[in-house]
């Protein structure tokens, strides 16, 4: 008697199709079994990948997605470094040597900027009265007509132009050079070093230039550290270009110091005829350490090192909260105008935004649009963020940053109302200035706050490591807010 099941299997067209041919040789059988085994392995791998994907998705539901937004140079990447320092110190440690290339690039660029501004100096006798140089610089300084902020788009009463150079404080005393080497001499001796600037820029950016960026600006994508080959402290890994620059710096220490301390340079910087990047002073003041043999960047160097972010860089930290680990995804974005389009895809599932605004920048204009005052741009950008429908439910924290630079500028007598006309005759003092700018940001928020969300505002200096241990950088309520993002369920306003 035939068993029904075997009749079925014999008649099943699929089984028939899969059955090896009766004429199958041993070699063919071996090959077939191998192929079947490989197919099984691939199928199991796909199942495992799907399982892991499901697991990740389930787990990531409790993750926190935090965007760092703000204009270029506002301090977003510096803030990200502070997070890294706090939650992933080992990763910062592993990339410490990569920052050597950035610091060297910042130093070389600063020296080149000083020498370029003094370009006409070579033509005159170094012993002559330097007023002539100042006069020439005044003639060539960016004139107001080049930097007109459009009144229609201005959110704050910014000056239609920076104040006239003649309004700038006159030199305190006549400049006498002629002691020590001449600037022409220093330029000649520092030429091999300044010539390395484009190569260092290339090394950092991987040869990528960004449309509309200034000559010599370097944009980097996340993972740039791998390109500098200096991840470890090991000499074997060292980059020959960076080593050459290190040797040149070491040998040029005296010239760099002489240039930096040259009375003409000092005076022109004091009178804002030479406009250096904000971080130049930090590095040049400490050139003996930085140009020394076996230089290893200290944490303060890493926080002050400047390199522009391109696109969006994700940084992941596991944060321990009351014994439970929450994964934070920090998205650090490029803030220049040409980079802002890349932010939008990250708006959809963001939980919170830290908007960083450099309130020291009242006298500065955008690199990418020299007609726009930086504070004005920051307010416009904040308006766009507050009113964006995709971000309606996202928690907002505002960092009014670079308060240390603001204090220095006010102490040096720089007048806010020269640049921000609407500031009028208010006191040119820190408290008053901060209060004025904060009021403008709060007003933007109030006008774009259908969902009645809370805005946490903080005065910060994110290069300050002492303040950053979530003591003064984040006040207690922001600290609690940031730590309350344990899961999407916790994101109701009532938990704030
Ligand atoms: N003194 C001082 N310097 C700061 C502060 N915050 C940032 N900086 C410096 O300003 C420069 C620019 O900071 P970044 O963090 O690179 O700026 P960013 O917002 O990431 O800029 P993009 O990547 O171009 O959008 C760096 O040299 C920082 O060290 C601050 O509070 N005080
Ligand atoms: Mg950045």
TrEMBL record:
SUPFAM superfamilies assigned: P-loop containing nucleoside triphosphate hydrolases (SSF52540), Transducin (alpha subunit), insertion domain (SSF47895)
One Gene Ontology MF term: G protein-coupled receptor binding
A GO biological-process term: adenylate cyclase-modulating G protein-coupled receptor signaling pathway
Residues that span the membrane, as ranges: none
Keywords: GTP-binding, Magnesium, Metal-binding, Nucleotide-binding, Transducer
One GO CC term, this protein: heterotrimeric G-protein complex
Domain of life: Eukaryota
Binding site for GTP: 303-309, 401-404
Residues reported in the UniProt entry to bind Mg(2+): 309
Signal peptide (residue range): none
Biased composition (Basic and acidic residues): 26-40, 128-137
Region listing for Disordered, in residue ranges: 1-40, 122-181
PANTHER family: GTP-BINDING PROTEIN ALPHA SUBUNIT (PTHR10218), GUANINE NUCLEOTIDE-BINDING PROTEIN SUBUNIT ALPHA HOMOLOG (PTHR10218:SF360)
Stated name of the protein: Uncharacterized protein
The organism of origin for this protein: Serpula lacrymans var. lacrymans (strain S7.3) (Dry rot fungus)
